[in-house]
């Protein structure tokens, strides 16, 4: 008898609590500032792909959902021939974004990735590449790292410092 009265009391008490139900999709949920959602590939300020196909993102991925193949254009600039992410395996850990030296791969707050077919969750480079620069405006990896142009090596162009040998920095 006591347990029935207690259950009725609890039910009556919860009737007056504030509701936590979000009427999705009419009402969008509020996401935390550091929410990690859909992965995108960004472009540099010149409008070219930031990705240099270094494979660090694929190596850092704990579930092996990233696959890419590197190639070079006529001036020696590296880019991915194909870049593929299988979102059905991705756990949105953000290790790929942390490993990327060029800020090419970034996680956005977009969380609406539902599909009826599992094959549709495999995104190719055309689906991942956006027109904007993402979070890091004005960053161009090749301006920072330099690259070989017109038969001149790194550090041989006018107003360019020679590259640093990192082995000299060791104690």
UniProtKB/TrEMBL annotation:
Biological process, per Gene Ontology: aerobic respiration
UniProt binding sites for [4Fe-4S] cluster 1: 51, 54, 57, 100
EC number of this enzyme: 7.1.1.-
Superkingdom: Bacteria
Cofactor: [4Fe-4S] cluster
Origin organism lineage: Bacteria, Pseudomonadati, Calditrichota, Calditrichia, Calditrichales
Location(s) in or outside the cell: Cell inner membrane; Cell membrane
Cofactor descriptive note: Binds 2 [4Fe-4S] clusters per subunit.
Assembly mode: NDH-1 is composed of 13 different subunits. Subunits NuoA, H, J, K, L, M, N constitute the membrane sector of the complex. NDH-1 is composed of 14 different subunits. Subunits NuoA, H, J, K, L, M, N constitute the membrane sector of the complex.
Protein purpose: NDH-1 shuttles electrons from NADH, via FMN and iron-sulfur (Fe-S) centers, to quinones in the respiratory chain. The immediate electron acceptor for the enzyme in this species is believed to be ubiquinone. Couples the redox reaction to proton translocation (for every two electrons transferred, four hydrogen ions are translocated across the cytoplasmic membrane), and thus conserves the redox energy in a proton gradient.
Top EC group: translocase
Protein name according to UniProt: NADH-quinone oxidoreductase subunit I
